[in-house]
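hey m, so remember when u said the tokens were messed up on ur end? i reran from scratch. heres the input so u can diff it against urs
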Amino acid sequence: GKRIKIKNQSFRVIGVVEPAGQVSFFNVDDSIFVPYTTSQAYVSGTNHYSAIWVKAESEEVVARMAEDIEVLLRNMHGITDPEKDDFHVTTQADALETVGIITTVLQVMLVSIAAISLVVGGIGIMNIMLVSVTERTREIGLRKALGAKNGDIMTQFLIEAMLLTLLGGLIGIALGAGISWLAAFILTHAVALNWEFSFPVSAMLLGVGVSGGGGLVFGIYPARSASKKSPMEALRYE
């Protein structure tokens, strides 16, 4: 019984549908349904359909139904060459395939960016550890003079490199989770999208493993450099 305005035209509300929630990127609860003739006359200002939604009886007949619709529209539009269709028929399977392609491309891009970031970060860790080895040359010489073996020195610096990268990985995971939660909160409350926050434990464990593995790989060279130092030369280092 209430009235609302759409493009300066007054409409009377005759009913409210049950909440349906979010469907893909489309919020059904934000939709307004009006007779198509009314929409053409007062809203869109057109005399043709821009889209027709068709519901199949079952999933098995979707492909055949899409073909029948194409044939019907070609006959109605006088089209004999399928290359000259002035329409397109899309099923949910086609939409899912398109979304899958987009998702795959995004995943490849994200993996590439992550790989580049990992290499750059690993080189940074390696440089830091090399500086640490240089600054602690006397410490390395003293440890060797007291009986530490090359393997002990190498293990020490490898553990330090792994701890550095693990700490960086944990900080990155915390920042990523916080930004994701904030984005979900804004999209849900400010943009009215039903965007739920998710924190997969498997992804966290993978991130921790990659961080530790990166420290192990990029810490080998500095650790080997430290382990090969001569105790006498190391003790004389200023």
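this time it looks ok to me. Strands lie at 3-6, 9-12, 22-23, 26-27. if urs says something different then somethings off w ur setup not the seq
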